[in-house]
Amino acid sequence: MGAGVKDTENRVALHALTRPPALLLLAAASSGLRFVLASFALALLLPVFLAVAAMKLGLRARWGSLPPPGGLGGPWVAVRGSGDVCGVLALAPGSSAGDGARVTRLSVSRWHRRRGVGRRLLAFAESRARAWAGGMGEPRARLVVPVAVAAWGVAGMLEGCGYQAEGSWGCMGYTLVREFSKEL
């Protein structure tokens, strides 16, 4: 898994765990564990580690998995002439007919950001989604891109490329991931 992906997971986990309801639940769990465990430090840290692990497993299960090789999804890796890996892209079909294609992984190495790599990967994803929709007999092509709420740069890039925010999902009433889509 690339460093950019791990950074995004960490930012989403930090964002979710610093919301007031999450802090209240962590404090209550820590207080309860102090009566069971003999160590104050363990009672303080155990709920945090368990919450972060659950959050990361949940994110990986719902968002950001790589599809099997071949077919629509890739994965494709962007590489510079010097052999440096710049980014990665993976696609999957939507969950139902007419949903179009869905980006399951779009990550650009931090050393190659703001150099057009993300836009090129997105343009490639759009061309693959169009070709896939045409091959499936769909009258129109559509691409959906989920974005972590903490990834403001990606959201700005998508809006600049004509994508519209259409939905979101989260935990405890807080948005963790926004979904952008574009009719192609």
TrEMBL record:
Its main location: membrane. Residues 33-184 form the N-acetyltransferase domain. It comes from the Eukaryota. Gene3D superfamilies: 3.40.630.30. The chain crosses the membrane at residues 35-55. One of its GO terms (cellular component) is membrane. GO terms for molecular function: N-acetyltransferase activity. Keywords: Acyltransferase, Membrane, Transferase, Transmembrane, Transmembrane helix. PROSITE patterns: GNAT. Probable acetyltransferase. This is Probable N-acetyltransferase 14. It comes from Lipotes vexillifer (Yangtze river dolphin).
